[in-house]
Amino acid sequence: MPFFFFDPTMVILIPAIILAMYAQFKVKSTFNRYLNVRAQTAKTGADVARELLNKEGIYDVQVSRTSGKLSDHYDPKDKVLRLSPDVYDGNSLASIGVAAHETGHAIQDNVDYAPLRFRHSLVPVANFGSQFGLGLGAFGFFFFRSELLVSIGILLFTAAVLFQIVTLPVEFNASSRALKLLKKHNYLTGKEAKGTKKVLNAAALTYVAATLVAIGHLVRLIVMRGMLDDE
Fold this sequence. Notes:
The chain crosses the membrane at residues 6-25, 125-144, 150-170, 199-223. By secondary structure, this protein is mainly alpha-helical. It has 7 helices and 3 strands, in the order ααβββααααα.
């Protein structure tokens, strides 16, 4: 019986894994590059986030500092923008861009942006599917040769893939909102906006890569089920 680590279907994942590795390198290198480029405005990422929220009439979202690097996120449950120290305290192009991006998510939540609402509804089933779908499918294939178990794994993991796919328009839209607001309210010059856009584009690539990896895993499970059909 072949072992999971020597699974020949893993070849399906190779392009996506290479892209994911490149995306991680790209986002870190681009972020670090523009983290050292100070914006003309004297405002920090936290300042920009608070001001943009106020300009959009959003007063129930807090802006707080969180630990880690590139750990920035919007918490819709507690209505909090959590910014990493580099972003919260920094006034670089990277800091302002990331802060505005996360503010974009808060704005999406405020206007009840449909893809964001749909993504939130998928969270419970997507978490369950990502934790158990792939493992159940592989376990059913390698140890029980069970088409039923693999099919259940496919069904569960499909929810995780759908979550990744829906994440793409949510992230792209947040970045688009961020750039428009930064330009509209004169936080960045035209040249500075180009640097900030590079940071946001690099971050977006990580979501594309994650989606392709998830799709690759789903394709693997489908191939496994097909192999069982042929036995």
